Amino acid sequence: MDETSEILNKADQRREEKGLPYAGALLPPEAYQLLRNVPGAFLVDVRTRPEWDYVGRVPDSVMIEWQSYPDGRPNPEFLERLQECVPKDAVVMFLCRSGTRSHAAATVAARAGYAKSFNVLQGFEGDKDAQGHRGTVGGWKVAGLPWTQG
Questions:
Q1: pLDDT tens per residue, range 66-83
Q2: HSE toward the beta carbon, residue 134, CA cutoff 13 A
């Protein structure tokens, strides 16, 4: 079995274990490997514009806010923007700060016909550490994966 198949099998196992309504859940290094190895795969960052600008972002990701800042209102154009940017038959992975907004986005995408929708667990910054800070426990950045800031 090749690396891509192994990753997809793990993601599917997590889907079954957690009863997820989309194709599966990926750890950040797994998502990165799929981006590198699956032609036409997309990473959709659903955080807010200030998060992209000040916390950082993944190069070449599609950026579509799930909620607006600062009021947290749902983005009524989310699905429309997704359909403009990502073909329905693509592998599409959703990323947020810690995995919650991306879970919601993957759910909506799957219901809209994106059969290969995945949530990236731990998100960009991961969970809070003992001091209440993010960026030290799990997540895209802690995994040492490519990202830019500013």
A1: 999 999 999 999 999 999
A2: 16
